[in-house]
Amino acid sequence: MSIISSPNLLRMALWADAAVSLVTGALQVTATGPMSEWLGLPTSLLAYTGEFFLLYGAAVAFLATRKQPPPALIWLLVIGNACWAAATLALLMVGGLSPTLLGKGYVVMQAVVVAILAELQYFGLRRTQVAW
C-alpha cells in the first residue's frame, strides 16, 4: 500500500508538517547568527520566521492528535502552505535580499517541502472526506 492510498495520509502529513516546522523553527531560532552568515539572509527574517514555525508546528501537532481534525482548518493549512511556498519563491525573485547560493537553496528547498506538504494534506483531506 502506498502512502497516498493510506487511510492515515492526513494524519501522517500533519505530523510531517509539524515535525518539519518545529525542527526548522528550532534551528532558525537557536542558530540565527550562523545561519544568517551562511545563508546571506537577515537575522530578523530568520528569527521571526523561526518563531512562527515553532508556533505553527505546535498548532499542527495539536491538529494531528485530533481523531477528526476540522476540515475547515485543514483547508486553511493547505491554502496557507501553498501561499507560503509561492511567497517564499517570490521572495527570491522580487529582490531586496542577497542570499548566498546556500541561502537560495535553503529558500527553494523550503518552498518545495511546503508545497509537497500542502499537496499531501490536500489528498489526505480528500481521502478522509470521502471516507466520512
Kindly list the characteristics that best describe this protein.
132 residues, mainly alpha
Helix content: over 70%
Quaternary state reads single chain
Beta strand %: under 5%
Mean pLDDT across residues: 92
The biggest beta sheet reads: none
Topology:
Layout: H1 9-30, H2 32-39, H3 43-64, H4 71-94, H5 101-131
Helix pairs in contact: 1-3, 1-5, 2-3, 4-5
Describe what you observe in this structure.
The protein is mainly α and 132 residues long. The chain has one domain (9-131). Helix content is 81%, strand content 0%. The chain has helices at residues 9-30, 32-39, 43-64, 71-94, 101-131. α1 (9-30) packs antiparallel against α3. The radius of gyration is 16 Å and the shape is elongated.
Brief write-up:
Helix content is 81%, strand content 0%. With 132 residues, it is mostly helical.
